[in-house]
Amino acid sequence: MNLLLQDLHPYPFERLRQLLAGTQPNPALAPISLGIGEPKHATPAFILQAYAQALQDPATGLAAYPATAGTPALREAFARWLQQRYGVAVDALTQTLPVNGSREALFAFAQAVVDASAGDAVVVCPNPFYQIYEGAAILAGATPFYANSDPARNFAVDWDSVPESIWQRTRLLYVCSPGNPTGAVMPLEEWRKLFALSDAHGFVIASDECYSEIYFRYDAPLGGLQAAQQLGRTDFRNLVTFTSLSKRSNVPGMRSGFVAGDAAILQKFLLYRTYHGCAMAPPVQAASVAAWGDEAHVQHNRDLYRQKFAQVTPVLAEVMDVSLPDAGFYLWAGIPAHWGQDDTRFAQQLHAQYNVTVLPGSYLARQTPAGNPGAGRVRMALVASTEECLEAARRIARFIRQSA
């Protein structure tokens, strides 16, 4: 077996399962889970119809092997969406590739990009973070380095905390904007800083943007390709962005997304993916073309989240350190002072007494010399109906007031 597998950390949801395994939740209350970020809004009917029609068509059904690069129609749909959403022009056939959801691609990308032959490769990622970044780094033979987020700056990552000696060894940098779990969006000046570091040290930037279409202010979040274009980097050198239909279009089970950016890197990534066997099923490609071509359902989805967060956030803000994020569907909430930093005990007792599941923030971060930036916080995924989320918020408020 690959000995690097033993260096992987348990996944946050496995740790949560173990934490709650010994508790008996209050049977008088129906369970409500805010733990997993799995979209629950209805999948638009036109996407399901496109999938069903393609499944019945011999040309787009399951009777032939699909190309790893996807159909020209699919990649042209990616390019049209990037132009419409960000005002960014890309060559559909050299600067985009389909992927089976951003998670799969974020992991595979490190395996293709990181050269660990020298034995000192580093992958830098935010802290707290999406654990796929860490696992991808470890299995690529690199050492993860965790750059802590700063609560005083709306949880923006403190890239200045990364030593020069680390940047010199960095092969890959993961960024996530809007961030998971904090919802923070990277401004243009932050991109300028990272591009300068990439130019100085030659590392690749992987920009995870799967939450880009769920936002609460009227200015859509800045994207990595958009930032590069505004700064004159129209070749998108050393930059690849990752996006997905899962959150945007409520199709997490379809496993559909795409990557876009530096053509030279994507040429090599396509070679890797051809050997890896990562082709997207033809019916999924057809349904994806339909999804990327429609914005009405995206606006409706965004409105549902806006209404939900507008009702839930004030209830929780009365008892927790929490506010509306820039984007995404998570609330990143600080637990009350009388709980100290014990977010795991908070989550365990909330589950036992009120049958509400939240994810301890410390499970989403790693200990650093400056501490664990997730300690004392919990992540709440507001993916269920407004009624369920509001009921969960009221239970949490009662739990906190009774525990004071």
UniProtKB/TrEMBL annotation:
Q: Which UniProt keywords apply?
A: Aminotransferase, Transferase
Q: Which Gene3D superfamilies is this protein grouped with?
A: Aspartate Aminotransferase, domain 1 (3.90.1150.10), Type I PLP-dependent aspartate aminotransferase-like (Major domain) (3.40.640.10)
| MF term (GO), any | succinyldiaminopimelate transaminase activity
Tell me which cofactor or cofactors this protein depends on: pyridoxal 5'-phosphate
InterPro entries recorded = Aminotransferase_I/II_large, DapC_beta/gammaproteobac, LL-DAP_aminotransferase, PyrdxlP-dep_Trfase, PyrdxlP-dep_Trfase_major, PyrdxlP-dep_Trfase_small
CDD domains hit by this protein: AAT_like
Q: Give start and end of each Aminotransferase class I/classII large domain.
A: 32-396
Report TM segments: none
Give the UniProt record's GO annotations in the biological process aspect: lysine biosynthetic process via diaminopimelate
Q: What is this protein called?
A: Succinyldiaminopimelate aminotransferase apoenzyme
Report the source organism. Lampropedia hyalina DSM 16112
